[in-house]
Amino acid sequence: MKKCLTFILVIFSSIVFAQEKYWQQHVRYNIDVTLNDQDKSLKGFEKIVYKNNSPSSLNFIWFHIWPNAYKNENTALFHQLKNDTARAKKMEKYTYGSIDGLNFKVNGKVAKTEAHPNPQYIDVIKLNLATPLKSGDSVIITTDFNVKLPSYFSRSGFAEGEFMVCQWYPKPAVFDKNGWHEFPYLDMGEYYSDYASFNVNITVPSSYVVGATGVLQNADELAMYKQIGSKNVADRKAKPILYTPKIKTGVKKLNYKIDNVPDFAWFADKGFVIQYDTLKLESGRIVDAFTYYHDSDSTLWNYSIDYTKDAVKKYSKWIGEYEYPIVQVVEGPKNESSGGMEYPTITLITSPGAKKEYLDGVITHEIGHNWFMSMLGSNERQYAWLDEGLNTFFQFRYEAEKYRANSVFGDIPIEVQALPAKEFLSSIYGALSGIPMKSAIDIPSEKFASSDDYSTASYLKPALWLYILENSVGREKMDSAFQLYFKQWKGKHPQPEDFKASLEQSLGINLTRYFELLKKEGKFE
Question: How many domains, the chain?
């Protein structure tokens, strides 16, 4: 492997690093939404301030109206699901979802909209602007919206009394140096979103426990969550204390705020067990940590708060400090076709496995997306590996150091478990290199033939690709390279060439031939 890398990496005398003049759009949301838990619906209103930081004037803005992806079997989502045998189980029984009641206004005046020309893209709509939005200017956009939530089969929906409210509000598509990214919602393939500020009011029946992106502003409710959660952490063998609302009937309005994140999701259940603690980063900054899970005698979640804290501390040390004031993990309904789904400051875990090592690994992976998705906002749909692959690389390191375990291989021979962490990880990657990896890494998500192909090429193969580099330059230099990448691109939308440039600047080597491996089908040898 080292000989292979020596051939790939060519040292050169000087690196000239320069970013072109960079820009990105910014969005500010004020959203009010009410959950009707009887008919599984949302009623909402949003006000958006959209700032055009691009050098171009805009005549329109593409919007994602994601809930329409669940509307019928002719959407891009259903087309993908029905053509992937690995996802067939999801389609055994389901109910549809949709969004309607849209009445867009721009600066107070009724605005015209157009459907996307692709008939499968009914979850994408074009908002026409009566006057061009000039560079540097902002526009105010408002609309009502009603959402019928689907049953839970692809990230958003309801199941077993729990609500997973994800990709639920009308959302501008990203406009960047490459143009508009108005793609539809897919199950295999994630997102690309503008950085935004959120001020969200969520009205729910008073008995629900809610976990959401951002910080809860209701002081009494937050204090209750912390008090109950602290007690549940202090005595984990006792029957957990459950949330009891002060007013048992009626509704409550919860307000959440957060800045500089690419998305907002929330989760609600009447029966959540709450755990709460704080963690202290190396800078001295304190972060609130919450987990929400189901009350069960056989639960593995009693120590979920510890896994959450460990993940944030390790990734902060290895890559760069966690920048948000809160981190949260939610147990979702059992769904064997997915391990979890990440959103800024909060993540959903749907397949915890049967061992604490696996649950810890899944939690760590999903929390890791706060780096490779949220703080480093790459285009996940176009470059899944720049998100999933980099994250998996650090997840494997976490599992090796903490447990001598690996979430891919499951049961590992005792003699391998007895190895030092570095040798254990080498053994894992040696075994990983023997797995068939037909597809190239650098393929847009929608182009993969199957979810198995997508998982191998977007998660495992790029982790191995990164390990080859680390094995050549050494872990200390590799960590420094990632830390420079994080420092240069946090809060922005890095492209693969930006990742390459950061690594080259830090390592002092030309990585062109190494990055060409991203296009290589089959094994690296």
Answer: 2
At which of 194, 229, 262 does a domain end? 194
Model pTM above 0.90: yes
d(CA 365, CA 478): 19
- Dihedral angle sign, alpha carbons of residues 427, 428, 430, 435: positive
Same domain, 6 and 111: no
CB 174 within 8 A of CB 194: yes
- State how far Cα 141 lies from the chain centre: 26
The reply to whether 120 and 158 lie within a common domain is: yes
Same domain for 55 and 170, yes or no, is yes
**503 shares a domain with 455:** yes
Q: What is the CATH number of the domain that holds 461?
A: 1.10.390
Q: Which two tokens stand for residue 14?
A: 């000087």
β-bridge partners, 275: 291
Work out the pLDDT band at 4, boundaries 50, 70, 90. very low
State the Cα–Cα distance between residues 227 and 207, nearest whole angstrom.
17
pLDDT for residue 52 is more than 90: yes
Any domain includes 305: no
The dihedrals phi and psi of 80, each to the nearest 5 degrees, come to -70, -45
Range of the domain at 414: 2-20+394-519
Q: Are residues 98 and 7 in the same domain?
A: no
Strand 286-294 and strand 326-331: the pairing is parallel
The model's pLDDT over 392-404, given as tens digits with 9 standing for 90+, comes to 999 999 999 999 9
Q: Assess whether pLDDT exceeds 60 at residue 12.
A: no
Same domain assignment for residues 70 and 186? yes
pLDDT of residue 337: 59
Tell me the pLDDT tens digit for each residue of 200-221: 999 999 999 999 999 999 999 9
Q: What is the pLDDT of residues 414-454, one digit of tens each?
A: 999 999 999 999 999 999 999 999 999 999 999 998 889 99
Tokens of 289: 């940590």
